[in-house]
Structure formats: C-alpha cells, structure tokens
Amino acid sequence: MALPHGPISPNTKLALEHNPQKQIYTHTPQSPSTPLCPLHPQSLSSTSPSALSSSTTMRPAPPLPAAAAALALLLCLSLSPAADAHNITRILAKHPEFSTFNHYLTITHLAAEINRRLTITVLAVDNAAMNAILDKHLSVGTLKNVLSLHVLVDYFGTKKLHQISNGTTLTSTMFQATGAAAGTAGYVNITDLKGGKVGFGAEDNGSDLNAVFVKSVDEIPYNISVLHISQVLTSPEAEAPTPSPSNLNITAILSKQGCKSFADLISASGALKTFDDNLEGGLTIFCASDAAVSAFMPKYKNLTNAQKVSFVLYHGVPVYQSLQMLKSNNGVMNTLATDGASKYDFTIQNDGEDVKLKTKVVTATITGTVIDQDPLIVYKIDKVLQPRELFKAAAGDAPAPAPKGSKKKKETTAADEPAADSPEGDSADQTADSNGVGGGVLSGARVVVGVVLSLCLSVVFL
C-alpha cells in the first residue's frame, strides 16, 4: 500500500484503518499548471488523498482495445490533408519557358487527359524546341498526336531514368493508348547513355534518340513526373496528316459503324447542318445502335417535325468530350437541343467502369467508341436518349403530387407534346434535394468527423 507523502489528515487516517486493502494514489503538491481534467492520468496522480472519497476505490481507466486504436489511427490518417490532384497546366505555368508547350496541351485537350491519370510522365519541351514543330504548320489533330507521344503512361523520375534495367526500355505513350498509332509507333525508347545522359526517341523513327534529358521540372513520386527534354520527338506516324473537320462526313462515319439508322434520322430531320456547324469547335455525338433506333421508331413517328429536330440534336454535345473527360466530369450536360428555358440536358454518371447517360426518362450506357478524332468523337449507346421535355418521366423520377389545397395554377398541356416534367417541378425537386438530402449528408459528415477526431485524441492521450 502506497502511503501519501506529507502529513495525513484525520479522515484519511481513519479510512486507512478501516480499509487496509484500499489503494491510495501518491500525493504530489498541486501546482497551478496541473491539468484538472479528471480523465487525464496526470490529474489522477496529482489528486490529494483528502479529495478522494473514503468509500470509492480509484482504478486506472481500461485501455482502448487494440483494434479500436488501430481503427482510430487509420481514420485519423485518412482525414489528414491529402495532396491536391496534380494539374499539369498549373505546374508548367510556374515555368515560362514551357508556355508554348503548355498552351498546346490545353488546345489539344491533352491537359485534361494528363490530369485524370494517376501515373504519368510528361516530356516537356521549351518554347524554342516547340517552334521547330510549329513551323511545320500541322493541323490540331496531328499536333495532338505528336504531343501525346510526349506523355508516357508510366512514372519516370530522375532516379529511375538513371537506373533503367539493361540500360534501355520501351514504354507506351498516350499516342499508343488512343489506338491511333499503328503497331508500336506509339512507343518511346529510353536509353541510358555515356556521361550520365539519357536519350529519348520514337520507336517508329528507327529508334533514333533525337532528344536527351535536360532536367527534372517537377516530380510527385509515382503520381506525375515532368521532365525537360531537349527536342520534340520525331515520328512519321504521329506527324501524318489527319482529316480536317470540314472533310469529316458525319453520316458516312455513322453508317459504317452500326449507326446507319441514327444517321438516317439526322439527315431526314434536317439536323445535319447543326452538327456540321459545330465540328470546328468540338463535337460529341451519342449514337444509338440500329436495334435501339428500330425499337424506338413508333414513338418517333408521333413527334412533330420540330420535336424530331430537338430529339436528334439531343444526342449531340457542342464540345469534344473524351471518355476520360466524361468519367472525371460527372454531372448535368447541355446538348445541341438546349435553348434557354428548354433544358434538354441529361446527367453523366459513372457506374464502375461504365459511363451512363440519365435523362429521367431512360438510362443509356456507352458501349463503345465509333470514332475519336479530335475535334469529333462519337460514342455508341445501347438506348435512344429520350428527353423529359418530350416524353413522360419514369415513375421513380416523377414529382410527388402537390398537397391538397395548393393547386392554384391552371394545368395546361401542349396539344402536340406528351406529359413531361415541367421546369417548375424539376426546380422544386432540386430545391428539396439541396435542402433535405444535401443538408443531411453535410450534417452526417460533421458527426462522423467529430467522432473520428475524438477517437484520434483518445489514441494520442493513451
């Protein structure tokens, strides 16, 4: 039994005589800085015996179970501030000597592709080296192929460059990943040379190492590495001419790829000119398969001429959107049919590896790519997209009936349009979602964060 230091008060002495088995914590002089939290170990050790009840036995707090402690620590780490996703545009913006290279990564939409990937190496060339390729007056499509050859789909930091197995390696590039490169034309040869130099060359250029490593611009290990190389990689395949947008025949392309029925709808409706007019600035088309169009034709025949045009235009988006861009930019997307209050939009949503298009009437899935030739990309989908402005919304998406006594507005329905969600009803649904679901999620998130932080603190004080 540990006796307290200093004089023993009468009450304590009496307690000791009547409770000889009782444990008394060691008494230490109280200082102003001593924590008074009753759960803190230091507070327990510094409490005077006279402050302890003679009828209460003090026991140390039970230790936090190991599993709970590990879980709390794991949650603490998961809540720690994570590094922001890399952004190639911002990285290069810090280095003015790469401004031209940076500019054309944006123009060709390669910047968005680079930002989406988790493991990537960018072989950047300075403004002087870019002038050599720009003097060839390549089209935007061809320039994209050349620059995509400078984006390796693997991580190469400075250390890895100088420690390549067997001194040489072939690595795939984004040019190869697009499928535009024939054979191994989309591969780059990296070889360690004498004097500590590292050479780079396109595989289809006879493995001529026409560029060498200059310096590391920025490295986020195993995420993104930006390396400065001396020259633009030359490749006959990448520099081959690509058709200009004006030479692309949309209906001919669709007809050859299992979308002939949809191509016929574009021509018959008179919507082709609108598609052609948007080619120069970028165009994404979602083409329903022949089987899907055939099954939909009974509904299509009931539409007016104006509605048929809107329906066809609903399958086009006035901007180039690669599959990677769609996956990383889920949400509401306007279409060629969008016109002020007439929304004609749909929602892009990932479903595992699939990308789905939701219209509140039907949900379609992208099943393949018909053509990907910037500024045009065409996807094949398994269902016809039906806008809620023309067709009745699915039961699960229909707005709830209004409460009794609140129906003050006169209900009107256009003679030539089926029932559909009204803009007012859609806005009400969005407001309810934002006030109810959104608020609940936010509140729930705060509760979870609070609980996790409490667990973290308990681990720290053990």
Q: Layout of helices and strands, plus pairs?
A:
Layout: H1 10-18, H2 41-45, H3 66-79, H4 88-93, H5 99-107, H6 110-116, E1 120-124, H7 127-134, H8 140-148, E2 151-152, H9 158-161, E3 168-172, H10 174-177, E4 187-192, E5 198-202, E6 211-220, E7 224-229, H11 250-255, H12 260-269, H13 272-277, E8 283-288, H14 290-300, H15 305-313, E9 316-317, H16 323-328, E10 331-333, E11 346-351, E12 354-358, E13 363-373, E14 376-381, H17 423-461
Parallel strand pairs: 1-7, 8-14
Antiparallel strand pairs: 1-2, 3-4, 4-5, 5-6, 6-7, 8-9, 10-11, 11-12, 12-13, 13-14
How would you describe the overall organization of this protein?
This protein is an alpha+beta fold and 462 residues long. It has 3 domains: 10-51, no CATH class; 88-229, FAS1 domain; 245-395, FAS1 domain (Roll), CATH 2.30.180.10. Helix content is 35%, strand content 17%. It has helices at 10-18, 41-45, 66-79, 88-93, 99-107, 110-116, 127-134, 140-148, 158-161, 174-177, 250-255, 260-269, 272-277, 290-300, 305-313, 323-328, 423-461, and strands at residues 120-124, 151-152, 168-172, 187-192, 198-202, 211-220, 224-229, 283-288, 316-317, 331-333, 346-351, 354-358, 363-373, 376-381. Strand 13 and strand 14 (376-381) form a beta hairpin. Helix 3 (66-79) packs across helix 17 and helix 12 packs across helix 15. It starts with 9 loop residues before the first helix and ends with a helix. The relative contact order is 0.09. Mean pLDDT is 76; it is low at 1-6, 8-58, 76-83 and 405-449. This is FAS1 domain-containing protein.
